[in-house]
Design a protein that fits this description.
Number of helices: 10
Number of strands: 16
Shape: globular
Radius of gyration: 20 Å
Distance between the termini: 32 Å
Bound molecules: uridine-diphosphate-N-acetylglucosamine
Strand content: 15-25%
Largest sheet: 7 strands, parallel
Structural class: alpha/beta
Protein backbone atom coordinates (compact mmCIF):
# COMPACT_ATOMS: atom_id res chain seq x y z
CA UNK A 1 0.00 0.00 0.00
CA UNK A 2 0.97 3.63 -0.30
CA UNK A 3 0.84 5.31 3.10
CA UNK A 4 1.15 9.07 3.58
CA UNK A 5 2.67 9.74 7.00
CA UNK A 6 2.35 13.23 8.50
CA UNK A 7 4.88 14.19 11.16
CA UNK A 8 7.21 11.77 9.37
CA UNK A 9 10.39 13.54 10.55
CA UNK A 10 9.37 13.37 14.21
CA UNK A 11 10.23 10.91 16.96
CA UNK A 12 7.31 8.52 16.35
CA UNK A 13 7.02 9.39 12.63
CA UNK A 14 10.60 8.38 11.84
CA UNK A 15 10.18 5.01 13.56
CA UNK A 16 6.78 4.48 11.91
CA UNK A 17 8.01 5.30 8.39
CA UNK A 18 10.87 2.80 8.89
CA UNK A 19 8.49 0.10 10.14
CA UNK A 20 6.03 0.69 7.26
CA UNK A 21 8.82 0.39 4.68
CA UNK A 22 10.09 -2.78 6.38
CA UNK A 23 6.55 -4.20 6.08
CA UNK A 24 6.66 -3.57 2.32
CA UNK A 25 4.63 -0.35 2.07
CA UNK A 26 5.51 2.79 0.10
CA UNK A 27 5.75 5.85 2.32
CA UNK A 28 5.00 9.43 1.32
CA UNK A 29 6.64 11.43 4.11
CA UNK A 30 5.26 14.85 5.08
CA UNK A 31 6.39 17.09 7.94
CA UNK A 32 5.95 20.80 8.65
CA UNK A 33 9.24 20.85 10.61
CA UNK A 34 7.72 23.04 13.36
CA UNK A 35 10.42 24.64 15.56
CA UNK A 36 8.79 23.31 18.77
CA UNK A 37 9.66 19.75 17.67
CA UNK A 38 12.83 20.15 15.65
CA UNK A 39 16.33 21.49 16.14
CA UNK A 40 17.15 24.91 14.71
CA UNK A 41 18.04 25.52 11.96
CA UNK A 42 15.19 23.28 10.94
CA UNK A 43 16.34 21.05 8.07
CA UNK A 44 14.09 18.30 6.75
CA UNK A 45 15.58 14.82 6.36
CA UNK A 46 15.97 13.64 2.77
CA UNK A 47 12.75 12.53 1.11
CA UNK A 48 10.47 14.44 3.50
CA UNK A 49 8.05 16.91 1.90
CA UNK A 50 8.03 20.06 4.04
CA UNK A 51 4.30 20.75 4.10
CA UNK A 52 1.80 21.84 6.72
CA UNK A 53 -1.39 19.81 7.22
CA UNK A 54 -3.30 23.03 7.85
CA UNK A 55 -2.74 23.83 4.17
CA UNK A 56 -3.45 20.27 2.96
CA UNK A 57 -5.83 21.63 0.34
CA UNK A 58 -2.81 23.19 -1.41
CA UNK A 59 -1.06 19.84 -1.70
CA UNK A 60 -4.08 17.62 -2.34
CA UNK A 61 -2.27 16.27 -5.43
CA UNK A 62 0.18 14.44 -3.14
CA UNK A 63 -2.75 12.57 -1.59
CA UNK A 64 -3.99 11.17 -4.91
CA UNK A 65 -3.18 7.44 -5.14
CA UNK A 66 -2.55 7.19 -1.38
CA UNK A 67 -4.32 4.21 0.27
CA UNK A 68 -4.04 5.24 3.93
CA UNK A 69 -3.05 8.42 5.76
CA UNK A 70 -1.24 7.88 9.05
CA UNK A 71 -1.59 11.24 10.81
CA UNK A 72 1.11 11.73 13.43
CA UNK A 73 1.80 15.46 13.00
CA UNK A 74 0.74 17.35 16.13
CA UNK A 75 1.74 19.83 18.77
CA UNK A 76 2.52 17.59 21.75
CA UNK A 77 3.04 18.07 25.47
CA UNK A 78 0.74 19.21 28.18
CA UNK A 79 0.45 22.87 27.13
CA UNK A 80 2.72 25.11 29.12
CA UNK A 81 0.39 28.09 29.56
CA UNK A 82 -3.06 29.06 28.28
CA UNK A 83 -1.19 31.18 25.73
CA UNK A 84 -0.48 27.84 23.98
CA UNK A 85 -4.18 27.12 23.39
CA UNK A 86 -4.28 28.59 19.87
CA UNK A 87 -1.15 26.58 18.96
CA UNK A 88 -2.89 23.30 19.86
CA UNK A 89 -6.13 24.34 18.18
CA UNK A 90 -4.32 25.39 15.00
CA UNK A 91 -1.96 22.44 14.57
CA UNK A 92 -4.12 19.67 15.99
CA UNK A 93 -7.77 20.69 15.49
CA UNK A 94 -7.56 22.75 12.30
CA UNK A 95 -4.69 20.63 10.94
CA UNK A 96 -6.68 17.41 11.24
CA UNK A 97 -9.87 18.96 9.85
CA UNK A 98 -7.97 20.39 6.85
CA UNK A 99 -6.22 17.09 6.20
CA UNK A 100 -9.49 15.10 6.34
CA UNK A 101 -11.19 17.53 3.94
CA UNK A 102 -8.28 17.22 1.51
CA UNK A 103 -8.39 13.41 1.83
CA UNK A 104 -12.08 13.46 0.90
CA UNK A 105 -11.25 15.60 -2.15
CA UNK A 106 -8.46 13.23 -3.17
CA UNK A 107 -10.57 10.12 -2.51
CA UNK A 108 -8.40 8.64 0.27
CA UNK A 109 -10.76 6.43 2.32
CA UNK A 110 -8.61 5.30 5.28
CA UNK A 111 -7.26 7.22 8.24
CA UNK A 112 -5.06 6.21 11.17
CA UNK A 113 -4.49 8.88 13.78
CA UNK A 114 -2.14 9.32 16.74
CA UNK A 115 -4.30 9.92 19.78
CA UNK A 116 -3.20 9.79 23.39
CA UNK A 117 -4.10 8.39 26.78
CA UNK A 118 -4.56 12.02 27.86
CA UNK A 119 -8.11 11.79 26.42
CA UNK A 120 -9.09 9.84 29.58
CA UNK A 121 -7.86 12.33 32.15
CA UNK A 122 -7.54 10.20 35.28
CA UNK A 123 -7.48 6.39 35.42
CA UNK A 124 -10.49 4.39 36.58
CA UNK A 125 -10.80 4.33 40.37
CA UNK A 126 -12.44 2.14 42.95
CA UNK A 127 -13.08 2.66 46.64
CA UNK A 128 -12.83 -0.59 48.62
CA UNK A 129 -16.13 0.34 50.34
CA UNK A 130 -18.03 2.42 47.78
CA UNK A 131 -17.07 0.89 44.45
CA UNK A 132 -16.34 2.78 41.27
CA UNK A 133 -15.66 6.52 41.75
CA UNK A 134 -14.80 9.44 39.46
CA UNK A 135 -12.52 11.81 41.37
CA UNK A 136 -12.65 15.56 40.70
CA UNK A 137 -9.36 17.28 39.70
CA UNK A 138 -7.00 17.46 42.67
CA UNK A 139 -7.10 20.74 44.58
CA UNK A 140 -4.13 23.05 45.22
CA UNK A 141 -4.81 22.66 48.93
CA UNK A 142 -4.48 18.85 48.78
CA UNK A 143 -1.39 18.97 46.57
CA UNK A 144 0.27 21.60 48.80
CA UNK A 145 -0.38 19.37 51.79
CA UNK A 146 1.22 16.41 50.00
CA UNK A 147 -2.12 14.62 49.56
CA UNK A 148 -1.40 13.38 46.06
CA UNK A 149 -3.71 10.39 45.95
CA UNK A 150 -7.31 10.68 44.84
CA UNK A 151 -9.71 10.15 47.72
CA UNK A 152 -13.18 8.62 47.74
CA UNK A 153 -15.67 11.52 47.63
CA UNK A 154 -17.89 9.55 50.04
CA UNK A 155 -15.50 8.34 52.74
CA UNK A 156 -12.12 9.96 52.02
CA UNK A 157 -10.28 6.64 51.66
CA UNK A 158 -7.49 6.52 49.10
CA UNK A 159 -8.88 5.18 45.83
CA UNK A 160 -7.28 2.21 44.06
CA UNK A 161 -6.63 2.62 40.34
CA UNK A 162 -7.93 0.21 37.75
CA UNK A 163 -7.13 -0.10 34.05
CA UNK A 164 -9.05 2.09 31.64
CA UNK A 165 -10.74 0.57 28.62
CA UNK A 166 -11.48 2.39 25.38
CA UNK A 167 -15.16 2.88 26.17
CA UNK A 168 -14.35 5.04 29.23
CA UNK A 169 -15.77 8.54 29.31
CA UNK A 170 -13.33 11.04 27.81
CA UNK A 171 -12.23 13.71 30.27
CA UNK A 172 -9.52 15.94 28.71
CA UNK A 173 -7.68 18.07 31.26
CA UNK A 174 -5.21 20.11 29.20
CA UNK A 175 -5.19 22.05 25.94
CA UNK A 176 -3.28 19.16 24.36
CA UNK A 177 -5.81 16.63 25.65
CA UNK A 178 -8.71 18.73 24.37
CA UNK A 179 -7.13 18.83 20.92
CA UNK A 180 -6.60 15.03 20.92
CA UNK A 181 -10.28 14.47 21.76
CA UNK A 182 -11.19 16.90 18.95
CA UNK A 183 -9.01 14.95 16.49
CA UNK A 184 -10.82 11.73 17.37
CA UNK A 185 -14.19 13.43 16.91
CA UNK A 186 -13.18 14.87 13.52
CA UNK A 187 -12.10 11.35 12.51
CA UNK A 188 -15.55 10.02 13.50
CA UNK A 189 -17.35 12.77 11.58
CA UNK A 190 -15.15 12.33 8.50
CA UNK A 191 -15.61 8.53 8.53
CA UNK A 192 -19.41 8.91 8.46
CA UNK A 193 -19.58 11.66 5.91
CA UNK A 194 -16.75 10.85 3.45
CA UNK A 195 -17.40 7.87 3.93
CA UNK A 196 -14.22 6.22 5.12
CA UNK A 197 -12.81 4.14 7.95
CA UNK A 198 -10.69 5.51 10.79
CA UNK A 199 -8.62 4.23 13.70
CA UNK A 200 -7.31 6.34 16.59
CA UNK A 201 -4.42 4.92 18.59
CA UNK A 202 -4.24 6.17 22.15
CA UNK A 203 -0.51 6.06 22.86
CA UNK A 204 0.60 5.88 26.46
CA UNK A 205 3.98 7.32 27.54
CA UNK A 206 6.18 6.79 24.52
CA UNK A 207 9.97 6.67 24.91
CA UNK A 208 12.99 5.34 23.05
CA UNK A 209 15.90 6.33 20.83
CA UNK A 210 15.52 9.61 18.97
CA UNK A 211 13.28 11.11 21.62
CA UNK A 212 13.58 14.90 21.62
CA UNK A 213 15.64 16.41 24.40
CA UNK A 214 14.22 18.26 27.36
CA UNK A 215 11.82 21.04 26.28
CA UNK A 216 8.88 22.43 28.24
CA UNK A 217 6.76 20.14 26.02
CA UNK A 218 8.74 16.91 26.65
CA UNK A 219 7.49 13.82 28.43
CA UNK A 220 9.10 12.77 31.70
CA UNK A 221 11.42 10.09 30.23
CA UNK A 222 13.20 12.68 28.06
CA UNK A 223 13.36 15.09 31.00
CA UNK A 224 15.02 12.44 33.21
CA UNK A 225 17.50 11.50 30.47
CA UNK A 226 18.37 15.12 29.70
CA UNK A 227 18.94 15.86 33.39
CA UNK A 228 21.35 12.97 33.67
CA UNK A 229 23.26 14.04 30.58
CA UNK A 230 23.72 17.40 32.27
CA UNK A 231 25.04 15.60 35.40
CA UNK A 232 21.90 16.28 37.43
CA UNK A 233 19.76 13.72 39.25
CA UNK A 234 16.23 13.21 37.87
CA UNK A 235 13.67 15.12 39.94
CA UNK A 236 10.57 13.06 40.68
CA UNK A 237 7.45 15.09 41.39
CA UNK A 238 4.79 14.31 44.03
CA UNK A 239 5.83 11.19 45.98
CA UNK A 240 6.85 9.27 42.88
CA UNK A 241 3.87 6.91 43.24
CA UNK A 242 2.13 8.17 40.07
CA UNK A 243 1.45 5.17 37.82
CA UNK A 244 1.82 5.25 34.02
CA UNK A 245 2.42 2.80 31.18
CA UNK A 246 5.67 3.36 29.27
CA UNK A 247 5.55 1.99 25.74
CA UNK A 248 8.62 1.75 23.52
CA UNK A 249 8.66 3.71 20.24
CA UNK A 250 9.38 0.51 18.27
CA UNK A 251 6.15 -0.96 19.64
CA UNK A 252 4.24 2.23 18.80
CA UNK A 253 5.58 1.97 15.23
CA UNK A 254 4.41 -1.66 15.09
CA UNK A 255 0.97 -0.62 16.34
CA UNK A 256 0.80 1.99 13.56
CA UNK A 257 1.66 -0.65 10.95
CA UNK A 258 -1.01 -2.98 12.40
CA UNK A 259 -3.63 -0.20 12.28
CA UNK A 260 -2.66 0.84 8.73
CA UNK A 261 -3.09 -2.79 7.64
CA UNK A 262 -6.37 -3.28 9.55
CA UNK A 263 -8.18 -0.04 8.70
CA UNK A 264 -8.97 -1.11 5.12
CA UNK A 265 -10.90 -4.13 6.39
CA UNK A 266 -13.19 -1.99 8.53
CA UNK A 267 -16.73 -0.96 7.59
CA UNK A 268 -17.12 2.34 5.78
CA UNK A 269 -18.32 4.91 8.28
CA UNK A 270 -16.56 3.28 11.22
CA UNK A 271 -14.15 4.77 13.75
CA UNK A 272 -12.47 2.76 16.51
CA UNK A 273 -9.98 3.70 19.23
CA UNK A 274 -7.30 1.50 20.80
CA UNK A 275 -4.93 1.82 23.73
CA UNK A 276 -1.31 1.38 22.71
CA UNK A 277 0.55 0.44 25.87
CA UNK A 278 2.92 -2.17 27.23
CA UNK A 279 0.44 -3.60 29.72
CA UNK A 280 3.12 -3.33 32.45
CA UNK A 281 2.37 -0.27 34.60
CA UNK A 282 5.21 1.41 36.50
CA UNK A 283 5.49 4.25 38.99
CA UNK A 284 7.37 7.40 38.02
CA UNK A 285 9.88 6.73 40.81
CA UNK A 286 10.51 3.28 39.30
CA UNK A 287 11.01 4.91 35.90
CA UNK A 288 13.61 7.27 37.39
CA UNK A 289 15.32 4.34 39.12
CA UNK A 290 15.38 2.23 35.94
CA UNK A 291 16.79 5.08 33.87
CA UNK A 292 19.46 5.92 36.46
CA UNK A 293 20.37 2.25 37.01
CA UNK A 294 20.96 1.77 33.28
CA UNK A 295 23.22 4.79 33.03
CA UNK A 296 26.98 4.99 33.56
CA UNK A 297 26.57 8.10 35.77
CA UNK A 298 25.99 7.30 39.43
CA UNK A 299 22.99 9.51 40.13
CA UNK A 300 19.97 8.66 42.27
CA UNK A 301 16.52 10.13 41.73
CA UNK A 302 15.39 12.93 44.04
CA UNK A 303 11.73 12.87 45.14
CA UNK A 304 10.88 16.57 45.40
CA UNK A 305 7.21 16.67 46.40
CA UNK A 306 6.67 19.36 43.71
CA UNK A 307 3.53 19.08 41.63
CA UNK A 308 2.07 20.34 38.37
CA UNK A 309 -1.54 21.38 38.59
CA UNK A 310 -2.53 19.81 35.26
CA UNK A 311 -1.12 16.37 36.11
CA UNK A 312 -3.33 13.41 36.80
CA UNK A 313 -2.39 10.93 39.52
CA UNK A 314 -2.59 7.62 37.68
CA UNK A 315 -3.44 6.57 34.17
CA UNK A 316 -3.12 2.97 33.15
CA UNK A 317 -5.00 1.26 30.39
CA UNK A 318 -5.91 -2.17 29.18
CA UNK A 319 -4.04 -3.43 26.10
CA UNK A 320 -6.72 -6.11 25.44
CA UNK A 321 -8.71 -4.52 22.62
CA UNK A 322 -5.61 -3.74 20.53
CA UNK A 323 -4.47 -7.35 21.03
CA UNK A 324 -7.87 -8.82 20.08
CA UNK A 325 -8.74 -6.58 17.15
CA UNK A 326 -5.41 -5.36 15.74
CA UNK A 327 -3.22 -8.29 16.78
CA UNK A 328 -0.90 -5.80 18.50
CA UNK A 329 0.97 -6.70 21.68
CA UNK A 330 4.00 -4.75 22.88
CA UNK A 331 7.29 -6.64 22.76
CA UNK A 332 9.52 -4.31 24.80
CA UNK A 333 8.65 -4.18 28.50
CA UNK A 334 9.59 -1.15 30.60
CA UNK A 335 12.32 -2.99 32.50
CA UNK A 336 14.28 -3.82 29.36
CA UNK A 337 13.28 -0.72 27.39
CA UNK A 338 13.99 1.87 30.08
CA UNK A 339 17.38 0.31 30.86
CA UNK A 340 18.22 0.61 27.16
CA UNK A 341 16.80 4.12 27.07
CA UNK A 342 19.40 5.19 29.63
CA UNK A 343 21.98 4.83 26.84
CA UNK A 344 19.88 5.49 23.72
CA UNK A 345 20.78 8.62 21.73
CA UNK A 346 18.31 11.47 22.09
CA UNK A 347 17.54 13.78 19.18
CA UNK A 348 20.47 16.18 18.65
C1 LIG B 1 2.62 12.34 28.73
C2 LIG B 1 2.70 13.53 27.82
C3 LIG B 1 1.47 13.60 27.02
C4 LIG B 1 1.32 12.32 26.25
C5 LIG B 1 1.27 11.15 27.20
C6 LIG B 1 1.19 9.84 26.45
C7 LIG B 1 3.78 15.66 28.20
C8 LIG B 1 3.93 16.85 29.09
N1 LIG B 1 2.88 14.75 28.58
O1 LIG B 1 1.62 12.56 29.70
O2 LIG B 1 1.54 14.68 26.14
O3 LIG B 1 0.17 12.31 25.50
O4 LIG B 1 2.41 11.16 28.01
O5 LIG B 1 2.26 9.67 25.64
O6 LIG B 1 4.42 15.53 27.19
N2 LIG B 1 7.22 14.27 36.28
C9 LIG B 1 8.27 14.19 37.19
N3 LIG B 1 9.38 14.94 36.96
C10 LIG B 1 9.53 15.75 35.87
C11 LIG B 1 8.46 15.83 34.96
C12 LIG B 1 7.32 15.07 35.18
O7 LIG B 1 8.19 13.47 38.17
O8 LIG B 1 10.58 16.38 35.72
C13 LIG B 1 6.01 13.46 36.55
C14 LIG B 1 4.72 14.22 36.36
O9 LIG B 1 4.38 14.92 37.52
C15 LIG B 1 3.75 13.11 36.04
C16 LIG B 1 4.63 12.05 35.34
O10 LIG B 1 5.96 12.40 35.63
O11 LIG B 1 3.21 12.55 37.19
C17 LIG B 1 4.42 11.97 33.86
O12 LIG B 1 4.64 13.21 33.30
P1 LIG B 1 4.60 13.53 31.74
O13 LIG B 1 5.38 12.52 30.97
O14 LIG B 1 4.98 14.93 31.52
O15 LIG B 1 3.04 13.54 31.43
P2 LIG B 1 1.90 12.47 31.26
O16 LIG B 1 0.76 13.05 32.01
O17 LIG B 1 2.26 11.07 31.64
Amino acid sequence: MTVLVTGAAGFIGTATATALRAAGHDVVAVDAMVPQAHVRPVTAPEGVHVLDVRAADDWVGLLRGVDVVCHLAAMVGAGVTVADLPLYAAHNDLGTASLLAAMARAGVPRFVQASSMVVYGEARYRCPDHGHQTPAPRTVEDLEAGRFDNACPRCGRVLDWETVTEDALLDPRSSYAASKVAQEHYATAWARQAPGSAISLRYHNVYGPGMPRNTPYSGVAAIFRSAMEAGRAPVVFEDGGQVRDFVHVEDVARANVAAVQAVGGRDQGSHAAYNVCSGEPVTILDVARMVTAGSAASLSPVVSGEYRLGDVRHVVASPARAADELGFTARVGPKEGLARFARDPLRA
